[in-house]
Amino acid sequence: MNVMTSPVAAPVLKDKGLEIILSDGESHYFNFHWLRDNCPSSFSAATRERSFDIFHLDAAPRAKTAEVAGDALELTWEAEDHVTRFPIAWLEAYKVPQRRPDPADLPRKAWYGDHYPDVPRFSQPELLADEALRAKWIEAMLVEGFTILTDMPDSNAGLTETAEMIGQVRPTFFGDYFDVKTHINPTNTAYTASALELHTDTPAEEHAPGVQFLHCRANTVDGGNSLYADGVAVANDFRTRDPEGFKLLSEVPVPFFCEHDHYDMRSRQTIIELDQHGEVSGLTISQHMLDLSDLDQHMLDSWYPAFCRFGKMLQEEKYMMTFLMKAGECMVFDNHRIVHGRAAYTAESGDRYLRGCYTDRAEMRSTYRALVSEGRFKA
Ligand SMILES: [Fe+2]
């Protein structure tokens, strides 16, 4: 029998879209609005934005003709004198609904209390001088959420130039920078020398700052060990140990507050944050800023014990990384993932000065993508 090789089947025009057979031999449907709006000519190479305005079409776009010419789908349009040439490869990439591939969407690696010797460390002057090294630093931030920078300049400008390698310094409602400072001052012993429990910063903000920088300028006091734990490691284990508790803490938003004479900040957040894949991406937790709960009192019968079980778990030695920060180091960590705290110290024993600021998580991902990928419009 003479089997004829069939030519590429012509696309079939429907009322609101067309069907085309692609490389898997299956027929795939594409909507006319989508095809017209994303016509390669709809974008400006200069602005790298869409210059075509679909709102200005008088009627819904509908293809008049459709044929495969070489490696492109060629369309003419009913109400427009316009030809669209769509690379077939582009249709192949979008035949199944899914997000555009994202180089910043990296799997997270959980870490535990013994992690300190293995924390990724980078020299700040080397980072400033080397773009490829900067990409490695941000990659470590995306994967592990905690890094240490060394050889920091002993200046305010040093912190700013460091943060700006990731993004703009992101103000909070208490300003662009914050200082954690204790001088030898026996008349003021009550001032900030006590222990600070594990928390994420400013949970009462609708969008709490994403990346925290803590630049250690001086640390000669007795005590004052830094405490850090990976919220992803703890929450992943909690998910296995206590599935019902995990469900409550990841699904039920609870109120946080921060109030004083001139501000009254409020938000609702889930304690455990999940990403687009349903994986744990972080935490929002702070006992001293958890607002008076307005949840159903019967629900609290379950929620509070789950919250307490999780809070106790956060403090288990298995997860707690403890060390003393040294002058000239800068801790950089994901404020939505890494909980941090401080052991008590003796204020009279020396100087302890940290200067901190934040940048955004989304901006960190943006910087990373720009460093490691070509993007849609780069030649
Ligand atoms: Fe803090």
From TrEMBL:
GO terms for biological process: carnitine biosynthetic process. It catalyses: N(6),N(6),N(6)-trimethyl-L-lysine + 2-oxoglutarate + O2 = (3S)-3-hydroxy-N(6),N(6),N(6)-trimethyl-L-lysine + succinate + CO2. It is an enzyme of class 1 (oxidoreductase). Pfam families: GBBH-like_N, TauD. Residues 14-91 form the Gamma-butyrobetaine hydroxylase-like N-terminal domain. Residues 122-358 form the TauD/TfdA-like domain. Its EC number is 1.14.11.8. This is trimethyllysine dioxygenase. It comes from Salipiger bermudensis (strain DSM 26914 / JCM 13377 / KCTC 12554 / HTCC2601) (Pelagibaca bermudensis).
